[in-house]
Amino acid sequence: MQIDFTASAEVRQALANLGRTEDVKFSPSNRRLAIAGYARNKILVVDVEITVSAAGKRMDLTDCVEIESSSLHGPHGLSFIDDETLVVANRSGMVPILKVPPRGTEGRKVSVLALRYIRGNALHRLESPGSVCVFPIDDGLYEVLICENYVHCVTRHILDGRATFRVKSNEILLRKGLGVPDGVAINTDRRWISISNHNTHSVLLFENTPRLNRRSEPDGILSGVNYPHGVLFSPDDRLVFVADAGTPYVRVYAKDGDSWQGLRYPIKSVRVMDDETFLRGRKNPEEGGPKGIAVDSDMNVLVTTSTQHPLAFYDVPRMLMQ
Questions:
Q1: From CA 301, how far away is CA 293, in angstroms rounded?
Q2: CA gap 52, 58 in Å, rounded
Q3: What is the C-alpha end-to-end distance of the chain, expressed in Å?
Q4: For the chain, N or C: smaller number of CB within 10 Å?
Q5: What is the average pLDDT score of the chain?
Q6: Among residues 58, 68, 62, which one has the least CA distance to residue 17?
Q7: Secondary structure letter of residue 113 according to DSSP
Q8: pTM score of the predicted model
């Protein structure tokens, strides 16, 4: 089920030097991965090649670039706008938008300045953003959802890609029932939003209607998870994958029909590390297991990050058949 990867000595060294990792995301083309280096205030962007054949799946990490910036202060969550633009959620309260070098650029370490910052507005300044997801909407606009971990809410921001990602609007979208929201995702048709909610040991699902607001109750609940962290919808919207940071498992949930309403439990709990590896990272009940999670748009490969495994790859079809 786990896919071994090939990488140059330089890429392996960069992974080893990353320290404590948090979020991981594929770029829209599936040809890059961004990994948040929380403790060392940097982002590692890795060029990847996914090969699928009758012999199985192959992952080649062909190059990488370390992104340093004065705007990085505890980078915890990240999301690509496009293959060369990242939004980063810093636990310090800043959410910079960064331009990263294109594939093939010479040099494996670069220092960049933020194009812009998402700060919130006078009614709510961002204080402890920990997770972020970005989704294109209409006319060059982008919707950004940000989990305010220790303020216990989710904010929504609209960016204008035609004006260097100028922030057009800011609002608190969700608040009721949230306790340390630590992961956020939106499905491909933007109908459903999922929030990893630490304090209730569950993932909350909200139908993304015009009536959605900070007083809205969740429409669905995914239970049977210890400390949910990274969360994502499968590209076909049939499944939700959850990184359970308090256990060595990734939890998999399935919807009934076209709705995520109601209470659900995992259809699969997939072990992604052995006990020895898990216990080495278990500094407290919330740690030790997988943190970041991502899947490519063809649903061939799932990626996880953790303190003990900066990067690991898994065969999604085999995982689901296990």
A1: 11
A2: 7
A3: 8
A4: C
A5: 94
A6: 68
A7: -
A8: 0.95
